[in-house]
Amino acid sequence: MKRKTGIAGLLILLTTVSLQARELVDYVNPLMGTESTFEFSHGNTYPAVAVPWGVNFWTPQTGENRSGWIYAYTDEEIRGFRQTHQPSPWINDYGTFSVMPVSGDLKVSYKDRGVRFSHKNEIARPDYYKVQFDNGIVTELSASRTGAVLDITFAPGKEQYFIVDAYHGGCRLAIDKQNRRVTGYTKNNCGGVPSNFANYFVLEFSHPIKDQGIQINDDLFPGKLVGEHDRVCAYLQFDVPEGENLTVRVASSFIGEEQAWLNFDREVKNKTVADLKTESAKLWNSMMGRIVAEGGSEEQMKTFYSCLYRVLLFPREFYEFDESGKPVYYSPYDGKIHAGYMYTDNGFWDTFRAVHPLFTLVYPEVSERIMQALVNSYEESGFLPEWASPGHRGCMIGNNSLSLITDAWMKGIRNFDAKKALEAMVHQTQAQGRETSVGRNGFEEYDKLGYVPYPDYVEATAKTLEYAYSDWCLSRFAASIGNVSIAEAYEKKSQNYKNLFDPSYGFMRAKNKNGEWIEPFRAIEWGGPFTEGSSWHYTWSVMHDVQGLAQLMGGHEQMGAKLDSMFNAPADYNVGTYGFVIHEIAEMVALDMGQYAHGNQPVQHAIYLYNYIGQPWKAQYHIREVLNRLYNSGPKGYCGDEDNGQTSAWYVCSAMGFYPVCPGQPEYVLGAPLFQKVTLNLPNNKVFVIDAHNNSDKNLYIDSAKLNGEKFARNYLTHKEISSGGELSLKMNAKPNMKRGVQPKDFPYSYSEYKP
Fold first, then answer.
1. Helix 460-480 vs helix 401-410: crossing angle, to nearest 10
2. What is the value of pTM for the model shown?
């Protein structure tokens, strides 16, 4: 017995040491969600080698140059290693270029130079990527904020080439043979840029350039050193001795070539792939280490930190540092150089829901800079951004920039110009930009009628619901800085959602400009007055006034039955104005969860609404169902588009045990934590612990709770309670406790008071 005890103790010790030695970045799989197509999304992601919020990412490219699907897990060839800024395949890329080692015959075009590879010979991490091609070439890379270092091991006995592809849309490449350098710029974009936009890049090589040439469009010019045209590639030939690597160091800038060299000297000069990997891993572990999960399975840990990795990629830092170390940026709005901060590559329709509220809690210093950037965007363009990449893009709906500002402000992030922000917020609701997504589409009719009429405006009902929530945000912000008149005006408009609720059906639906309901009405019909969904999904978009919505539905029991029916109804659909099965429809059907469509954002908060009507155990059940069934760490890891971190943020928040249903109200609604313990290492040396005793796949219900040792019955935590540090101790059970969290005082915030 003593011997057995000793072995067991040794095994426990070795296991503990192993777990302690493992870094959080080791859990991340950047290939999560990469097995996606236009027709069906398992994430629509690519494996980004980057630092958190990096100016540039690097990724292997399997798709064609103009394709938004940079990397598809099912592809068998890699065409290059690409510096990318792409936030979504639907938005596509800008300022991108790629490089590619070639052995044997010279092949310059991306159409010809692809080389087969196997995932068995691929290592993908946030801080490092390595692949051994079938032809014997090995490529390794790691990235810094604005740069990267690559190591190329060429196949022995074959000609050695290296391609620099500046893509299309206007570009220039210049080869400096004496100094073993290539410089260039590329202007490719998909919109949202001033006329003087360009990405300037510089490359330096460890070995002499033996020969070179330029390809302009489809014409190859051997020996040529400079090319400037619509499409330009350069090829370099090397003679790297066997046993040595070709090291390529690269950096770039949106400001100019001089700044690119400054970034080069600061980040990659004389550094190796190993150096950058070490630096990057340190950054990832530091940022991820603010949320430490324990007591989950290996797969749950991988999924959790792979999701957190996605959360920490966007929005992209679009600022650089000058010679004195001060932040400066090229504005994608007015084309000028400014001092200060700028962020981009974010669609707030997605990320206002959980990404930015998570930042305000765990990464408030990032939120501070984002708020300053929003005000800068307004001053340089006349509007707040809603979907920026890098400037204003005509995509999605709503005024969700107002949500970001209000949520940050209400949580104590106030290092930006509040009066200028209020000016920008009001203007956002009273004007229309060149793109329909900028400003407020249909603002005059909305103010006159109390709703956006359909079919005068597409997605009109969805817009009305989102505008009403944004009006509540604006009212809260205005009141907090003492502007009573604006606060009262927008408080009244925040109730406009009621104008489109039809009690005879129990759903939100469209009205025309004469106040008549649009017929026929089918709750399962997608598109038309809704955005990437149906009435089943948008009826719940009253985050600021859930009790008001419950009253429209007839009370808590009726709303509870409606929520139940969403999960129990057949997954039927009508394609509506889309005219075909869009990928969001296909993904909803595949989930087999009724009309609940977790693969898209409008309905992701709906599960948590059970907490507002005294049925929190139902939320706990469905949350665990989604966490366990709809996510995994593999290439089919998501049940729809990942969308700039939002679908990942849902997982991160829900796995911790709470979710920000109504950004702008400093509260987090409780769910069912996935892990036995989660520790939040917050700023100012504050620590908040969620300790879920007896937690398991079966014990998914909260039986009882204590907050800092005191009995806790509420269905929500306040921002102050978490950010001040403390402990939420939960006792989990296999059976739901239908007596806990059922009193009105236990319900989260709602604009309207509970009325039984």
1. 30
2. 0.96
